[in-house]
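=== How it folds ===
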Amino acid sequence: MSRYAYFAGGCFWGVEYFFSQVQGVQKVLCGYMGGAMVNPTYEDVCYKNTGHLEVVQVAYDDTIVNFEALAKLFFEIHDPTQKNGQGPDIGQQYLSCIFYNDANEKNIASNLITLLEKKGYDIATLLREATMFYPAETYHQHYYQNHGKMPYCHAYTQRF
């Protein structure tokens, strides 16, 4: 059965790149979530106080990969301890956040944060209820794949 998960971990290009590599992930879209503005543009999110974060929508087959596996990967492909952005990308739109769809996803994410904190990490990742997802402009979709580049502010670091 197809399900959707929503993760914000800095620039959505790198987050999209890593989730696109996962077996069972059917599609990853870059977009915006968490703010009040309807149909925000990239310029709105960057230069206005929309409250939106850069987010990826991960469509996945939960008979192949589950939410916990995706959430673990999320914590391993960005720095969940950085409070003001991600790498060189600073600002509210680049905060680390898991947007959960239900109590089960919230509990899984919360438990993973607790595990990481027990390992000594000062986790900055926010947990927020999922709201309306707005796909980003076409030129943001599959950026690294389309440009033959690799992520510059995301890298895999095993934490679990």
